[in-house]
């Protein structure tokens, strides 16, 4: 028997199955520094222990998206090694900050299965949880992927399609214990705009662009121990291109969004997201955001803002999202919907 | 009103204005490791806690140029986002070591303004200070930049041109508390040459060369949270090239200078500097140094040496600096003038 | 006299000479994170403090190959700056784990010399030791290199060719104090295969491939403070290519071997190794392993497995090693022979 992991195929999943993912990971100052080298990340709460302490935290946690990437990366060998496409995200919540020295592991529960009409693949819905060394859930989200069948003759399972919330309700947002923006220093944070200054429907162009290199996306993707071949092996795809991990685009766009959203300090929920088109080295990533909703929170001085974050490789200021056919425009890379915390 | 930062234009500056720069940054072991991955840095005092302890310090501080890059990077969004050119440095002094866990912020005072005769830009002189979490100044330097006007019709300010020292006087050098080179281990440091072995006027060719990659200079520049578009966005310049952050060349040249100056352990003053020509990916950087001056210090066994450090992309051993017209030769990238500390 | 280091030539070595290498290095969390960004390293014991603690250790040590690269890198300026080729390794043993915060230095003893018949170069055998800040030897290995003569007229030394063990005897393996695999969690480690599941002669194809970039191998090689020009300066070789540090290939292949050997947690001995052909940016590295031997150990639940690890740039599944002429096939990059520890 071969000792290498061929990955699971569509017929290998069962609803209610819980898969414990391998290779726990201790994260520390090194991951933080690399995150800042890989992305133009400047949100002050993740950059300065002093700023975080003034916001009621015990120092600066690791960036919210580091937690996401580590938890996601661990699920790849079990969930998406034979994936044709990463279709969507829903009901994601950050439940506990991740601190330097924490050890993360993750597990996924299969919550839905539906074979495609072509009989060659199907959609798998999983709820993935990231846990720290005290078995506290730090992050929880649903994603669904299209997975190939290993044996086309395998019978189709009873279809189960989970009902997923369109977005996380404001009352379900979990805020870091102690968070308090009453002493918030807008000067140090980089922009004067507070929660009250943003209007639903407002669109913010984040101005900057970053041209992507092979070495960088591979460094990032390996750092999260994401093993999908297509990101690393230039001989894997017929066109000789390495597909860039979608999370690299998420982090790049989120970091670019500092320019205009410097005070949207912490991501607390992932309402949805689509990797609209593939991204390759040489593309120049730009981003814009739209304010989708706002909500109050119980934490002193803290408001919640729901944002659509769009990354694209088009010209600066190009805010096209979908064509007349309703499909994403070809230059759109990412359409992400999340809740962040801002000072009021 | 747009929420993104367009940067300041020439007419936005006033003499005596103090600008507090955004996004404080906690630096730690991760930044140190990345510095060693990005540059061939081998000065023992910044490489080994044991070596630093034997030199009277509480372990190894972060590299002197890490402090410079972090402090400089914070000033970019306020000072040089609309800069046409970074014209010079003067009166720079390292006043306190930066330790892992320190949080740095920076602020700049406008000390000079002079509109150019074309009426479209002007020169802004600022004194930038880096401060740690105890509000101690760790680094202080003057730089001047040419900045575009946003509105050509804006009236020219009264010209104020600061008088700047040609170099920091030896009596003004500040040495790290406790520094002592009496037990200095030349074997571990890598070279036998002590302060007394260098003569004013002596030229040292540093032999090695490093060919520069896009991914590396972008990792470095982001690590210092320097946001200037021209370093990251290949569509920004008409020629499609990303201009390499001048500080990347400084760090590369300083690291290359180990070969011949392994005992010039710590930079304590920046007397002047010019980024003579732009540097692009694919260039192979080489360096040579000239001993400009020497001075004694009050610290046991410690001498000061004033060095010109020249980085170029020419052939090995090419020490041309200026052409017959007095301008920098086209292959010269950097002409830096600094004081360093050496064992006597 | 030039102050730069020209490196030693063949005639500069004497049998029994001990060379203390320069620039001690404190290693910490930053090096660990960079290792995980540079290589797809997933062995759980080097990824998770919790997993390491459950294996009887005081947290996760730095990767075994980080110790190797640091110790090796320090020896380059003294041993291989003028090397024509790195010919082999033998009798390598990891004697103590390296922990975050440790400071490593290294020294080499010349144990053999033999001039080549062409009179222009010769083979130098050295035993290199890495020591921590408590002067404990953490790693010890023999390597031999072909070194150019600086002066062809220098007389040939009396040839001394050391007798080297074909492999480290199982009874000579040194295990980390306290190591215990009785509570080993195969689920977290990533694969179910235990020591008893591997048979001598078994070949494992590690499936994955990684296409190599210039920026990555230079980041790695600098991180280990390896200064050999040929890795960094694209103008050094006539073909304009930068030769990739052989250790980069070792680490890449070892990390790729996770897929099929996830439980071969720690390298404890290096029996031999050859860098069969040069590796350049753009090559896609793949790996396969062959089980050469197995041995029991005195540690609870711990077995030793002797593995041949072959890295190649050929097509997936290409296990050709040598041609009919007995020479390495042109696509083979590395042929490494080591002992690792596995749960029984």
UniProtKB/TrEMBL annotation, chains A, B, C:
InterPro entries: HotDog_dom_sf (IPR029069), MC_hydratase (IPR048274), MCH/BMMD (IPR052342), Thiol_ester_hydratase_Rv0216 (IPR016790). It comes from the Bacteria. Coiled coil: none annotated. One of its GO terms (molecular function) is lyase activity. Pfam families: MC_hydratase (PF19315). PANTHER family: BETA-METHYLMALYL-COA DEHYDRATASE, MONOAMINE OXIDASE-RELATED. This is L-erythro-3-methylmalyl-CoA dehydratase. It comes from Paracoccus versutus. The lineage of its organism: Bacteria, Pseudomonadati, Pseudomonadota, Alphaproteobacteria, Rhodobacterales.
